[in-house]
Structure formats: C-alpha cells, structure tokens
Design brief:
Strands 6-5-7-8-9 form a five-stranded mixed beta sheet, sandwiched between helices. A four-stranded parallel beta sheet has the order 2-1-3-4, with helices on both faces. It has a four-stranded parallel beta sheet with strand order 11-10-12-13. It has about 350 residues and is of the alpha/beta class. The longest helix has 21 residues. It is built from 14 helices and 13 strands. It has three domains: about 100 residues, Rossmann fold (3-Layer(aba) Sandwich), CATH 3.40.50.11840; about 110 residues, Diphthamide synthesis DPH1/DPH2 domain 2 (Rossmann fold, 3-Layer(aba) Sandwich); about 110 residues, 3-Layer(aba) Sandwich (Rossmann fold), CATH 3.40.50. About 45% of the residues are buried. The C terminus is likely disordered. Helix content is about 40%, strand content about 20%. The structure holds iron/sulfur cluster.
Length: about 350
C-alpha cells in the first residue's frame, strides 16, 4: 500500500557508509517497521538496524537524540518531508538522514474521487475548487485535478511555506498551500486518510472541505466536526478567562517542538494579568502526564498546537494553544482565534501567492 523505497535505503546506507542505522516511522507506518528491517538485513552485511518505537507525529520530531544515544550514524525517517533546518542540524551532529515520503497506492482512490465529485456537485455555487493532500497522497492530486477539470471546475493548487515540499501538501500545523489559494476558491477537497488534515484545513481556511479518503473509498463533508471543534476551543478559552487562576505552561522536548521563547512570552503575559504560572517540560504530552500535577486550573501547550485541538476531550482541565493563552492574557481578541500562528502562515501564503503560487 506504501512505496517504502527499500532500494533507496540500501543506496543511502552503502554510499554514506552507515554502520548503525536508526529507522523512524510516522505512527501510521510503524506496522511496516520490522518487514523493512527484514528486507534490509537480507541485503546488508555488518550494518546494525534499529527501529525507534517512540511516537512520531511530524517532521518536527526527527529522532536525533535517540540516534545520538544509541550511537547511530544514519537515520531513515519515513512519512514526512524535512523541515529546512533538519539537514543542517543533522550535518552538525555528523548524522546522515534520508527522508522517505511513503507515497500511497490504493485501489479505492477512484471510488473516493467519484464520491467527492458527487458531494461537490450537490453544493451551491462552487466553480473554483482548491485541492490539498496529506503527504502520502500528494501524487494522486494529478488525477483528482484531471477529474475535476473534466467536470468543468477550475482547480487551484497552492504552494506552501518552506516547511512543505510539494504543491498542495499540508501539515497539521501548516496550511499555507491552501491559504495561498483560499481567496480564489469556494471549497476544498482534501485527499487523505482520516480526519486530521481535513479538520485543520477547515479550521484554517474557513471554507467548506470535502474529505476524500482513498483508503476507505469514501468522501464526506467535515463541516460538522469543524464547527464542533471551533465551539469547544472558544468554550475552553472563555472558561479559562473566567475561572482559571493557576496555569501550567508546558514546554515540549521533541526536536522542533521546543518553544521556550513562546513559553516565556505566555508566562509573562499571564503573570501581568495576575495569574500564577508554573513551567513544565515534557517529552510526550498526554492526559496521564498532566494528571500528575493537580495544582493548575489550566494548561498551555507550547509543543504541537494540535494536541489541545484534537485531544481536548481527553483532558479533565482546559488545555490551550499558545494563541489561545494570548487571548486569555488579553494580547489577542477572541475573534482572532485561529488554529495556530496564522500571522506566520498567512504571510508565508501571501509571499508564495505573489510568486505565482
Ligand atoms: S508541530 Fe504537530 S502538527 Fe506540526 S508538524 Fe509537528 S506534529 Fe505535525
């Protein structure tokens, strides 16, 4: 179902002279770990292959520290494209890194597109459609575009910030490719398995989104979920404003989730409002981890902004994003709520649009 490019991994190991290789898979791809190990072991002599079993949700989370701790001189990271600084950092550490997209190949793609077209057809006044994809589905945007154009739609595929490699690709915290075409479209179709990116797309663009899922051969609108999540977020912000006196600002410890500067800014702003603020470091943010600390009335997560957005129902107390905490602290207005740092996202989107995206 996924192109795991074993040949490219073998070339990488041989050319770079890697002796100890750490394989890291996005969580949805971990089930393929040991079959990749078996294929590599058949071809490679004298190379030790280890698998990182730690969680991995994004390109912000390359297993540099695990590689250093176990003495690996090479990392193969499956399922994400690199942030620009990843390769520079790997160089500084003396670790070779190969990123593999793991593009998908599913027989249900065509059926999913048919269903997405049916839904689009039933929507009023849609002539311009933006299309996006999760990384694994990026190659299928071409077929989706062709099918839409055959039906008479004008199709827009945007370029994103320097954190996304392909036109139309989105990340959980970066919808610049969609934002760069948002003003030209009446609706989006997102190609991908599961709700995660489609939900973020709806929250970020405030346009109707049809999720086209090639794994299930299904398509559906996600407006209900977008409304529900937005309402929940505003509820937690207002509840925190009215009731929370003690806050705990959580600093993530994963590679590109350490935002100490943001954490200190939020702490200062909340203290200026008369709140008490604790600082906490965590490698893995979870309800269990936060339950160890009974004092705070609310938490602010400065690691991945999707933790509060997607998992809020699992937490007993409000968990806020950085932007939500700044609303509580009075630096931003409630109407300025957004999924994550859209001042950055929208500026990046404008820049690429100006360049012809
Ligand atoms: S911060 Fe969160 S949404 Fe952004 S890339 Fe990392 S895991 Fe994905």
């Amino acid at each position: 179902m996924y192109d795991l490019r074993i040949g490219d991994v073998l070339d990488f190991v041989r050319k770079r002279g890697v002796k100890k290789l750490l394989l890291q898979f996005a969580d949805g791809l971990k089930q393929h770990s040991f079959s990749v190990v078996e294929e590599l072991n058949e071809e490679l002599q004298g190379v030790e292959v280890l698998v990182s079993g730690s969680s991995c949700y994004g390109a912000c989370d390359v297993a540099f520290e695990e590689a250093l701790r176990c003495g690996a001189d090479g990392i193969v990271h499956y399922g994400h494209t690199p942030f620009p600084e990843a390769l520079t950092y790997a160089n500084e550490l003396g670790i070779d890194v190969l990123f593999i997209e793991a593009f998908s190949n599913t027989e249900l793609l065509s059926r999913a597109i048919d269903k997405a077209l049916d839904i689009l057809c039933s929507m009023n006044d849609v002539a311009n459609v933006g299309i996006t994809a999760s990384l694994q589905e990026v190659p299928h945007l071409a077929l989706l575009r062709q099918r839409l154009e055959r039906e008479g739609y004008r199709v827009h595929v945007g370029l994103g910030s320097n954190r996304v490699k392909y036109a139309g690709q989105v990340l959980g915290c970066d919808y610049t490719s969609a934002l760069s075409v948002r003003d030209r479209v009446e609706a989006f179709i997102h190609l991908g398995g599961g709700l995660f990116h489609a939900l973020g797309l709806g929250l970020a663009t405030r346009r109707p989104v049809v999720l086209c899922d090639p794994y299930r051969g299904e398509a559906r609108e996600v407006e209900h979920e977008v409304r529900k999540v937005k309402a929940a977020r505003l509820h937690y912000v207002v509840k925190s404003m009215e009731e929370a006196r003690r806050y705990c600002v959580v600093v993530g410890c994963k590679w590109r989730q350490r935002h100490l500067h943001s954490a200190m800014r939020v702490k200062r702003r909340l203290e200026e409002r008369g709140k008490s603020v604790y600082l906490l470091t965590l490698y893995e943010v979870s309800p269990q981890a936060l339950e160890n600390f009974p004092e705070p009335d609310a938490f602010v997560i400065t690691a991945c902004p999707r933790i509060p957005i997607d998992d809020y129902a699992n937490y007993r107390r409000p968990v806020l994003t950085v932007l939500e905490a700044l609303i509580v602290a009075g630096e931003l207005k409630l109407e300025e709520w957004s999924l994550c740092d859209w001042k950055f996202n929208e500026k990046a989107a404008r820049d690429v649009a100006l360049e012809g995206g």
